[in-house]
Amino acid sequence: MGYVKWTFWLLIAVIFGSFLHYTLPRHEVVRVVNIYQERQDPSGWTSIFWSGPKVKSGTQTSYDVQFISAVTPEGKPVVYRNEDTGWGWPPYFKFDTANLSTRAADLQSTGEAPKWGVMTYYGWRSELFSIFPNAVSIKPVDGPEVSIVPWFNIIFLTLLAMAILTVRALWIQFRRNAIDPVLGDVADAIEDVTDRAESGVDKARGMFDDLTGKK
Description:
The chain folds into two domains: about 25-150, CATH 2.40.50; about 150-215. The protein has helices at about 1-25, 95-105, 150-210; strands at about 25-40, 65-70, 75-80, 115-120, 135-140. A five-stranded antiparallel sheet has the order 3-2-1-4-5. The protein has about 220 residues and is an alpha+beta fold. It has three helices and five strands.
């Protein structure tokens, strides 16, 4: 039973951790190499990783998506989609897709004369399922050696941990003061009923023995 309990909570932790990893903002120093637009037709379960179908009209699901191609200082290629989140989830309230494309285009450069920027984004990249992280903002920096401190994530995760610990403490106190006494009373009542039943059985057996002359 203990293994089932820990497996359940481990599964919950993995799901919740994956949700946070996808949703929380991340930062990456990149050099923009291309800005382009491409027709996409998200379908099936992967459509949850796209924003456009939520605002489609009628039954048309294909739409044009802007992309930002870049490379990291190590030469790793990265591709971001550039879609508004609007008032939906995750709550980045992004409405400036066109402005972001302009800022990214302004940082477009070559390896011989690089311009570097810090791309803020959320989401995952999967070549197998054609999933792209969504760019939120880009800011120019002097060079690829810039140090990035994810202050929002630090503060958010700290507050989240404090909230979880507070709820856990309140639950333990509530269980100790309200639930455990009731369970104890129920257990005592069951034990009392069991004792009475056993006593009644013993008395009935004694009476039967007296009637039959058994000792």
